[in-house]
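Researcher: I'm preparing a figure for a lab meeting and need a structural model of a single chain. I don't have an experimental structure, so a prediction will have to do for now. The sequence is pasted below. Please return the structure as tokens so I can convert it later.
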Amino acid sequence: MTPCVAISMGDPLGIGPEVVALALTDLKVRSMLDPVVFGDKATLQRAAELRGVPFEARVVQVGRVSAQPSSEEAGAAAIEYVDRAARTVVAGEAKALCTAPLSKERVALRKPGFVGHTEHLAVMTGSPVAMMMAGPRLRVVLASNHVRLADVPEKISVEKIGFVIGLTAQNLRDRWGIANPRIAVCGLNPHAGDRGLFGDEDLRIVAPAVEAARAKGLEVTGPHPADGLFPRAASGEYDAVVALYHDQGLIPAKLLDFAETVNVTLGLPWPRTSPDHGTADDIAWQGKANPQPMISALLLAARLAQR
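Model: Understood. Here is the structure written out token by token.
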């Protein structure tokens, strides 16, 4: 049987409704999962009409949103779609969650302090989590997520990096079927600090975390200079890379395979995926959005749910 996947429609002012409508016409998507969309049916139908495709998926109507919502209305609606879809997965009525993009800025108008799906779902479920970008050539997991660069050294620790290494290994075994995952950890500083020449964090924090993980039997190495590590990982030398901050990991992942790279939340009780892009307000409702990232996210949600 194909798994039921709960889908949040995304921000009605962004490209979410459009890419959801298009993705659900893809033959492979239709063959691999049973979709149920949480959002506004009229908005989804308008998006389908814009692209000249039928919209036949089940929709759970969540409130009502106007055809031209304000920023606050759009943000409030988008996060409510996520919450309703997630609660359905928590209740066991769906096997995975796939979230279309929302605007952090617009959600924060209603929920001050909101910084993203990953952190929101972690709080909702009480789960310690990490963000993975999973593509055909590269999987990258972040030790810190949506924090400003100046705060990164304070956000990483031996314990936090060790947790992310362990969570990555567990998910690669359980959900990707990799019996003995090979994991590489980036250094924080240029050249991984060059033995303290460019800061001591790699010697003081990263290296002990790697050694502790190795002592637990994990196949992990580092800290590696990030600039040289990513080409090796993309060629297949490693099954995943642990990056220490947002742009260190996401730039190479998106540069290599933007349309096929999927945002996956590790640590939740069930699979959650999302396309690796935002609401793309500059092209929203112009009939230009590319559905391939949403297709990739839905297919991966189905594959992970089947495991």
